[in-house]
Amino acid sequence: MNLRQLEHLLALAETGSFSRAAEQLHLTQSALSRSIQSFEDELGARLVDRTGKRNELTPLGNTVAARARRIMFEAAELRRSADLLKQGDLGAIRVGLGSGPGAMLMTPFLVHMAQQHPGVRVNITRGSIELQLVQLRQRLLDALVIDVRSIAPAPDLTIEHLAELRAGFVCRREHPLLAARQAVRFDDMLRYPLASTPLSDEVAHILVRHFGPQADPQQAVSLRCEDVTSLVETVKASDAIFLGVIAAARAEIASGQLAELVTTPPLVTGARFAFVTLTGRTEAPSMGIFRQFVAERLRD
């Protein structure tokens, strides 16, 4: 038994076809068939039921495949650890950022790395949480910083709590709702476009509990995108109102361009940011730089 045979069985399990698995592995179909047959002979039992057009794993085959995935993961991590030691450097930083963390971290972190660690390669991705989780599991990313409520717990994910940042409503300093100098109702805000990132069901329930059914984001939010920076720029240039993490507009509020809207009743909730990695994944030394930077920046 060897790693190559485990790899061949996993490819067959994923594709259900000797021909497609062989193509994926850059082997001839006969070579793959001989490898699987040799594996079965060694174990003394069938791993694959060769019936019809699709080949399915036997119960033993499924058990072997489950263990093979763990073995292949550990083998990959051994190679990664050896590569990091041989490189003798900090390694690369490959991270995915959710919409809120992206607005607060991406540009400052790129500037920080260019100034303080110019020799470290940095790759930051944005996009849907679903896509970023796929990239993390494919080892194209080493870590994610996202709102923990946007993902479901899974055995292969290690989720480390980072910070909870207060959420609220932000508008431009000259907005008509600020002229009255008093707390505003949610109905008052609905006269203007409400801008937000896609919100989890949990956040939607919180909004409805606070302000009533009219606060359901599916109906109330008229400007929706993954990029918080674009939403903040839109609010600066219009009467739109941003709903999200207040710290995402920290610089604009400090400069006097934007202001927080005080509501009645007040919104008491926030984003729960977390650091997400693959369980058992070997971490490059450079990730310590990123972790420290994130801890310092993710605060109200």
Could you please describe the fold and organization of this structure?
The protein has 300 residues and is an alpha/beta fold. The chain has 3 domains: 3-87, Winged helix-like DNA-binding domain superfamily/Winged helix DNA-binding domain (Arc Repressor Mutant, subunit A, Orthogonal Bundle), CATH 1.10.10.10; 93-163 and 272-297, Periplasmic binding protein-like II (D-Maltodextrin-Binding Protein, domain 2, 3-Layer(aba) Sandwich); 166-271, Periplasmic binding protein-like II (D-Maltodextrin-Binding Protein, domain 2). Helices cover 47% and strands 20% of the residues. The protein has 13 helices and 11 strands. It starts with a helix and ends with a helix. The mean pLDDT is 88.
In summary, what is this structure?
Helices cover 47% and strands 20% of the residues.
First CA to last CA: what distance? 55 Å
**What is the count of β-strands?**
11
N-to-C SSE series? HHHEEHEHEHEEHHEHHEHEHEEH
- Tell me the helix content: 40-55%
Portion of residues in beta strands equals 15-25%
What's the number of structural domains?
A: 3
What is the makeup of the main sheet? 9 strands, mixed
Contiguous runs where pLDDT drops below 50 for at least 5 residues? none
Residue-averaged pLDDT, rounded? Answer: 88
What is the SS-derived class?
A: alpha/beta
Class of the largest domain in CATH? Alpha Beta
The coarse silhouette is: elongated
Total helical segments: 13
Helices and strands in order:
Layout: H1 3-15, H2 18-25, H3 29-43, E1 48-50, E2 55-57, H4 59-87, E3 93-97, H5 99-116, E4 122-125, H6 129-137, E5 143-147, E6 157-172, H7 176-179, H8 186-189, E7 194-196, H9 201-211, H10 217-220, E8 223-224, H11 228-236, E9 241-245, H12 250-254, E10 258-261, E11 270-278, H13 287-297
Helix pairs in contact: 1-2, 1-4, 2-3
